[in-house]
Amino acid sequence: MKHVCKICSPFILKDASEAHSDEVASAERPDNLRVLPMARRGGRARAAVERMKLWENGRTLKVKFLDGSPAVQAKVQAIAKEWEAVANLKLEFVSSGAAQIRISFAQQGFSWSTVGTDANTVGATAATMNYGWLEPDTELREYQRVVRHEFGHALGMIHEHQNPAASGKIPWDKPKVYAYYAQQGWDRDAVDFNIFEVYDEDSTNHTAFDPTSIMEYAIPDELTVGSYSIGWNTEFSAADIAFMKKQYPKAVPALTELSVGTPVIADLASAGEVDNYHLAITTAATYIMTTEGGTDTVLALHGPNDPGALLAWDDDRGKGANARIVRKLQPGEYWITVRHKTPAGTGSYSVGVKKRA
User: In this structure, how many other beta carbons lie within 10 angstroms of the beta carbon of residue 311?
Assistant: First the structure.
């Protein structure tokens, strides 16, 4: 039996606000939290991951099938486990109990997944992923294409054509695109949301547009102006692998300790890097946290005693392009993150904390 290739269908959270989604993500991983809204503009490199939706690096995600035939489940599981060689995460398939990723086959004709930690905003017994056309006799390449793609979403990846760096790269023929997806049951809002809209520059970690990414839709020539097309991608691209290894690295740098009165010299060596610091406060007082140097930094303060709770952030209240936070702190544990204002930016800086006299 021959199966027609279909694409990942729209999944839009209906029961969770954007603010709640951000809160869930920041509780999972402090550097998920976007602290600076920026306008859309072009970027660099080759894949895209929502900064706000990554799972805690190194954790075990439990995965459970809600329904489906054992033969199909076995094929999905085998291909999904390939992600363990790419990202520093463990996918543990369970038959009962709680699970972060819950797979259904009930919604026929539609395949989709929540993105990263958005799975935690869905009801505990509801599906977070669906495969709507996989059968025991579906070709292996189709299993590979759709399962690798949907689990890319589950680990935090977005569609590649919505990468900020894809803006203006695909010459869409919009009337034809609307008509084409209407045949799959999509309205204009769904097409806009899933095809034409790109993510804000600061809401993703990303590199240059990669048409070979497993997260890219096939784009037939008849949906574009001129001669432009992208075929069905079934393999992880080299950029997919390199980028996700960076988002979930196996070698995790130790958290740097900050001491009041002793600045630390550091370097944002690569695009999208976020440096993390731990600060122990023993005396209630007003503290001044600053960065110094020629790098355009963004500073965020988390705590007390909860790395997922954002207390304050700043972009450029310090000298030049540096950041400065002044805050009265009670005794407890705090965390400070430093990143570059632009996702592709790098550079050296120093960060320090002092008590106001």
Answer: 16
Among 321, 325, 329, 323, which Cα is nearest to 312's? 325
Task: Read off the DSSP letter of residue 317.
Answer: S
- pTM recorded for the entire structure: 0.68
pLDDT tens digit sequence for 69-107: 999 999 999 999 999 999 999 999 999 999 999 999 999
Sign of CA dihedral 207, 291, 311, 277: positive
Distance, CA of 126 to CA of 259 (rounded, Å) = 46
| Surface-to-core class of residue 344, CB atoms within 10 Å of its CB (0-12 exposed, 13-18 middle, 19+ buried) | middle
Neighbours of 265 (CB within 10 A): 11
Given 1.10.287.370, 1.10.260.40, 2.60.120.380, 3.50.50.60, which CATH number is that of 256-355?
2.60.120.380
23 vs 83: which has the higher pLDDT: 83
Q: What is the pLDDT of residues 263-287, one digit of tens each?
A: 999 999 887 788 889 999 999 999 9
Is the peptide bond prior to 249 cis by the omega test (within 30 degrees of 0)?
Answer: no
Rounded to whole angstroms, the Cα distance separating 139 from 183 reads: 24
18-247 is classed CATH 3.40.390.10:
yes
Picking from 295, 298, 305, 299, the residue whose alpha carbon sits closest to that of residue 329 is: 305
Q: Where are the domains of the chain?
A: 18-247, 256-355
Structure tokens at 177: 């695109």
Pick the closest to residue 25 from 115, 92, 85 (CA basis). 115
